[in-house]
Amino acid sequence: MSTEEKSAAPRSLAEALRVRDDVSLAALLRSRPDLITPVPTDLTQLATRAGTRASVVRALERLDRFALQTAEALAVAPDPASYGELLALMAGDEEDPAVAAALPRAAALLREQALVWGADDRLRLVRTARELLAPSPQHPSPTGLGPTVREATAGMSPGRIQEILAAVGLPSTHDSVSAVSALGGLFADRRRMAALLAGLPAESREVLDRLVWGPPYGQVTHDPAAHLRALLDRGLLLPTAPGTVVLPREVALHLRAGRAHRAPEPVPPPVEAAATHRPQVVDATAAGQALAALATVDELLKEWDEGGPSVLRAGGLSVRDLKRTAVALDVPEPVAAFWVELAYGAGLIASDGEADERYAATPAYDEWRELPPAERWARLAGTWLTATRTPGVVGGRDAKDRTLSALGPNLDRSAAPEVRHRVLALLAGLPEGASPVAESVLARLRWERPLRGPQQQRETGTGETRDDDLRSRIARWTLSEAELLGVTGRGALAAPGRALIGAPVAPRPAATDGPGEPEGPGDKLPVHHHRTPPLTAPPSPAERAAATATAARLLAPLFPEPLDHVLLQADLTAVAPGPLEQELADVLGVLADVESKGGATVYRFTPGSVRRALDAGRSAADLHAFLARHSRTPVPQPLTYLIDDVARRHGRLRVGAASAYVRCDDDATLDEILADKRAAALGLRRLAPTVLAAQADPAALLEGLRAIGFAPAAESAAGDVLIARADSHRTPPRAAPEPVPDGPPAPDDTLLAAAIRAVRAGDLASTTPRKPGPAGEDGGGEGGTPGGTLPRTGPAETLATMQAAVLTGEALWIGYVNAEGAASQRVIAPIRVEGGFVTAYDHTADEVRTYPLHRVTGVAELADDAG
């Protein structure tokens, strides 16, 4: 490198950022959005913020495995290191071609994210990252390497170092520094090290082999065995503390053939296809799942229409209420938790806020039910994709060892939306109709976001990776939840699911009944290794809205047309051979009980269900007409008799409020009630031949008489029959829960452009040279450049300089303190000075502004050669 090139080389991260163009700065801020929250005043502050521990840790955690391995290698390389030294650490003596091909991308990524700076001959890892990744006794390096010879011998006596030199055949030196350098040079020389190791006994080589890949520390007694003494005498093991020895880094690198990692992973593992189905079959299966999802959510909301389970004191559903909900939906409890959380996330259920707080449907549920089925599904799927609440953790324990309950607090996992979106994107990278091998999806995610520190993935004794990290669990839940929701069909991503994440959807050919690709359990095909899409920035709200609209449009033709009829059978059941029109489903849901669900839904008519319809205001004639209108088969005689029999007895008894009373025109019926021992608990007594008074309240009296076998109806104070309306309980308007973001939001292009313009203007204000004052003072800094101190001038001099600049059109460097007391440096071009204010073009803000002169701390003219 020439003298001019050396002088032009950046001496700090701030200088390295200063020579970047706007595109490069935008890439940095886009990948590390925490750096512009808030917008830094200049590039020096941006560099300082980029080197803080919290920001560096976050950046390292978002690197892929090979980029992280590259950073780990730089942490054990000389500082600074050349690109050749880095390549040698990554590719080893064998010069792995795959590593050599992938390393430029990894190095460019680290440099783009300001984790590495400097030219290729002087690469520097930022200090905080080096401290996090460099080896130490308290925090071993992820590479498994230990300290260098120089670091390990820092506290060793000079005499002992000279003894080691003699043992390895090196001449003695006059000082310890040169002795350590000579020893390090020997250990780094492949030929001489091979000769040195060849003279060791086999037991000594076994000790080195156990330490070579880490951890590099071992224990020895005060009188070590001969094979250990041979290693200690030659400096191949160096003492770090009483009874503790370490394998020097140079020795380990020789034994590793120069590689910093046992297994570099330059290429992401492919997502493998387990089976392939026709895309039409996948779409049809997913559409069936989507219909079932809508029916399940609708059933859940109807179950809670008149007030659902109570809210626990700490928030959420009790274990008992979750079990009841699972029984009502006929699903396992974890699946019930998923549906409950999905409805809550979509804003369809919430707590009612009453004194006796319960969960109930919200007004948004009524609006949701009015939407077309495809749009209802798209709203649920869009909510699921972006929600941070994670129903998979329900039943686990929080940090305080409390059980996590459905709808309760502490269910948010900020990584969930990113993992869900990425899993679906990986599925979209497979051939259409291909379902993935779940383990290959998890392996790919682990490569893209490897864990670090205590949570770093561990290996079992069999060499298999333990899958207990949160991201892997979320990925597994995503695969199962996507199938439940109809985003996937038979494990493969369906067309609406592709549209949901913004992936392109190929046109579907018309389905045929002829032979095609095999389907079913025996359709396993050879594994596909398909190119999966790279990581991309999260979509904006507008893009998400467009994606869900496209998904709804693609799903709508896959749904069957709703039916306007059922098939009535003589065993008091009705069969719905498909989805029903909303009005028909609502009425039939009141008139009959659902007995079984599936492709065809079976409803059963019972005295209780018929009475429920009569309580809702229907007459027997209405029910007969309804069934005759919507049945493709004649109305069976047993069903007609059932309706007439229940209607004949319905309402003969009237229950009202006294505390409560029973009224009946037939006094014989009242005599029958009084004679029944089961009615004793109601506390009935006769007030008149046709009226009984009760000690129980009206609701308890209704239930008690119905339990005995009567069919009473409630009546108002005016004597009219009270009609029990469906959907009677709603919460006040509630907003759906907001996702908890995973750090600062990604900036859009407008914010990036404004932030870069502000940073560059602030940097101009802080680095522009200015003319020295009359006494040779320039207001701070050296050599006529600002050093962070605001310029200081008197009011008269400030005013005179401003007025002169208006006439000459020159720019000035000023110090300014705003109304909140925050001080800043600015470069302005004054336009007008009057009334105690200066109007100027502010280069820092890139706009015309007006400043009170009393808030200007001072002014200085810019040097003639200011850029």
From TrEMBL:
Region (Disordered): 504-544, 728-749, 763-795
InterPro entries in the cross-refs: WYL_dom, XPB/Ssl2_N
Compositionally biased residues, Gly residues: 776-787
Domain named WYL: residues: 797-859
Presence of the UniProt keyword Phosphoprotein in the record: no
Superkingdom field: Bacteria
Example GO molecular function: helicase activity
Keyword field: ATP-binding, Helicase, Hydrolase, Nucleotide-binding
Domain Helicase XPB/Ssl2 N-terminal, first and last residues per copy: 566-688
Bias type Pro residues, positions: 734-747
Protein name: Helicase-associated domain-containing protein
Annotated organism of origin: Streptomyces tendae
